[in-house]
Write a structure and sequence with these properties.
- The protein is α/β, with parallel strands linked by helices.
- About 40% of the residues lie in helices and about 15% in strands.
- The protein has 13 helices and ten strands.
- The strands form two sheets. It has an eight-stranded parallel β-barrel, surrounded by four helices.
- Helix 8 crosses helix 9.
- The chain is globular.
- This is Aldo/keto reductase.
- One of its GO terms (cellular component) is cytosol.
- GO terms for molecular function: oxidoreductase activity.
């Protein structure tokens, strides 16, 4: 596995991150501790070094299992967790991005993970009820205390991330280094605003659900076996299945699995997108890791993207259409530096 820097920092991170949302059997569809160890070992042996978890995953079991698996090798890995989601439905302050929940969540996560610092702390989701200034200052305090080294933002609008970065730059606070976003052939919405912003601000992107909860593995289009799936056939549209079938055809033409084609597509345009691999078996883990060596031909990318029927919409498409009207015919002789 190859490495690159995490956003605008010097932290070296592997091409793919290991997702541990299914570590632990508390939610009924997760993985036993024994199988977690096998998956973790296979990922580490492949060269992966980023372990992604969250306080809420399997009600805290994921963090405890990750802490146990890291053991004395903890410093060799980039350990990332998240806060925001409630761990106590009876307490209104046990959720959100305010300072009180942040402090408690981080202390509890450190305890479950059996470590005294986090490499990356993700804000799990945008909280519209907490001032962004409060969140950014509280996060900066944690970085200054040494309990957190780098920051990331998950599941938030582009304007929130851009405002946060500007605020941090203006006030000398720690900015975000990465975004964690839903991205797959079935969910391309981040291409409208979030990906262009990430490129402009030099933010890494961790792509969750690159296989669309198994829909892009051939599970529904090839095998007809959906045991252990987090989704069901009745939740899929004919358009979803058309995309999955096109993916199967492209994969067959290239001699690779549907999963490999799906993961490879997430990195077809930007190498700073890191798919989060969530596996239930070592074979699934190895299959996704093998996708990192796949370079999809331009024609294959075109076929896949045409099947999605995805439109950027306004204002991106209007700006592109108005290009010559705005700049004049001479724009065709202009070569931008970026």
């Amino acid at each position: 596995m190859r490495y690159t820097t995490f956003g605008n920092t010097g932290l070296r991170v592997s091409e793919a991150f290991l997702g541990t949302m299914g570590f632990g059997e508390d939610w009924g569809w997760g993985v036993s501790v024994e199988d977690c160890r096998k998956i973790f070992t296979a990922y580490a042996e492949a060269g992966g070094n980023v372990i992604d978890t969250a306080n809420r995953y399997t009600d805290g079991s994921s963090e405890r299992i990750v802490g146990e698996l890291l053991g004395t090798d903890r410093d060799r890995f980039v350990l990332a967790t998240k806060y925001t989601l409630s761990m106590d439905d009876t307490d209104p302050n046990a959720a959100g991005n305010h300072r009180k929940n942040l402090r408690r969540s981080v202390e509890d996560s450190l305890s479950r993970l059996n470590t005294d610092y986090l490499d990356v702390l993700w804000v799990h989701i945008w909280d519209a009820h907490t001032p962004l200034e409060e969140t950014m200052r509280a996060l900066d305090d944690l970085v200054r205390s040494g309990k957190v080294l780098y920051l990331g933002l998950s599941d938030a609008p582009a304007w929130v991330a851009a405002r946060a970065q500007t605020m941090a730059e203006l006030r000398g606070w720690t900015p975000f280094a990465g975004l964690q976003l839903n991205y797959s052939l079935l969910e391309r919405g981040i291409e409208r605003e979030l990906l262009p912003m990430a490129e402009s601000l030099n933010l890494s992107v961790a792509a969750w659900a690159p296989l669309a909860r198994g829909v892009l593995t051939g599970k529904f289009t090839r095998h007809g076996a959906t045991e252990g799936s987090r989704t069901s056939r009745d939740k899929l549209t004919e358009h979803d299945l058309h995309i999955a079938a096109t993916l199967d055809a492209v994969a067959d033409d290239l001699g690779i699995t549907s999963s490999q084609a799906a993961v490879a597509w997430t990195r077809a345009h930007h190498r700073w997108i890191h798919p989060i691999i969530g596996a239930r078996t070592v074979d699934q883990l190895n299959d996704s890791v093998a996708a990192l060596d796949v370079r999809l031909p331009a024609d294959a990318v075109r076929r896949l993207e045409e099947a999605t029927s995805f439109d950027l919409g306004f204002p991106q498409e209007f700006i592109a259409e108005a290009r010559e009207f705005v700049y004049g015919p001479g724009i065709e002789r202009f070569e931008p530096r970026r």
